[in-house]
Structure of FAD-binding FR-type domain-containing protein:
Amino acid sequence: MNTYTAEVSCIQDLTHDVRAIELRLLDPPTIAFQAGQFISFEVPKEGQSRPVTRPYSIASPPERREHILLVLNLVQGGPGSSYLFRLREGERTSFKGPAGAFYLRDDGTKDLLFVATGTGIAPIRSMILAQLQRAPDRPVTLFWGLRSQRDLYWQDELGALAAAHPRFTVVTTLSRPEPGWQGASGRVTALVEERITSVSNLAAYLCGGSGMIKDVMATLRAKGLCPIYREKYYDE
Ligand SMILES: Cc1cc2nc3c(=O)[nH]c(=O)nc-3n(C[C@H](O)[C@H](O)[C@H](O)COP(=O)(O)OP(=O)(O)OC[C@H]3O[C@@H](n4cnc5c(N)ncnc54)[C@H](O)[C@@H]3O)c2cc1C
C-alpha cells in the first residue's frame, strides 16, 4: 500500500447527511486501483492517543487516475466521518491505499447484479461505470436501498446511464417512503427475491450493512450457486 497526499478539490452535499468529496492527487499525482477498492485514513479519536484507521471506498472509476471521489455518511460523533466532514476545499489530506478484495472481476460472460444500501453505492458506482465501459452489452442490474425521499441522490445520473445502456437496469427502493413516492418500496432483499429469476449465469456484488448482506446472500443461495462478492461496511 502506498501513502498519498491529496487536495480536496470539490465538496458536494448530496443529502442532509451524505457528502461527496473529490480529492485531487498531489503526491504521487496519480493512483492505480481496481473498481471497488478502498483507501484508508488515519484520524484522531477523542480520548485516545493513537489515531484510528477508517476505510472509504472509491466511488469514481479507475480510468480517472488524477482524482478520486468519496461518498460518505455523517455518523454523529464518529471520528472517521467527522474528520472527513471537517475537510474544506483546498485543504490537504493523506491516505493509504488502494486495498481490498471487493473489486470487479474481469469475467465477460456473467450477468452482473449489484446490491447496495446507503453509501454502499460507493464502490458499486465505480464498478458499474467501469463495467459499462468495458462491456456495454452485458446485462447489469442495480438494486439500491435507501430510507426515504430525502435520502435520494444520483438518481439523474443513474437514469441517464440506464437510458444510454439498454441492458442496464436500476431500481432504487425506499424502505420508509413518504406519501407520493411512485417508485419501488421495501427492502432490496425483496427485489432480489422477486426479480432475480435465475442465478445460473450471475455474479453478485453486495455492499452495505451486515443485515442486508446476510439476507441477500441467503436469498441468492436459495436460488442456486453463483459467485457472491461482498463488502461489509458495519455490523447491524
Ligand atoms: C471497506 C470499507 C469501506 C467503506 N467505505 C465507506 C464509504 O465509502 N462511505 C461511507 O460512508 N462509509 C464507508 N465505510 C464505513 C466507514 O469506514 C466508517 O465505519 C464510517 O464512516 C463510520 O466511522 P466513524 O469513525 O465516523 O464512526 P464510528 O464511531 O466508527 O462508527 C459508528 C457506527 O456507525 C455505523 N456506521 C458505519 N458506517 C456507516 C455508514 N456508511 N452508514 C451508516 N452508519 C454507519 C456503524 O453502526 C458504526 O458502528 C466503509 C467501511 C469499510 C469496512
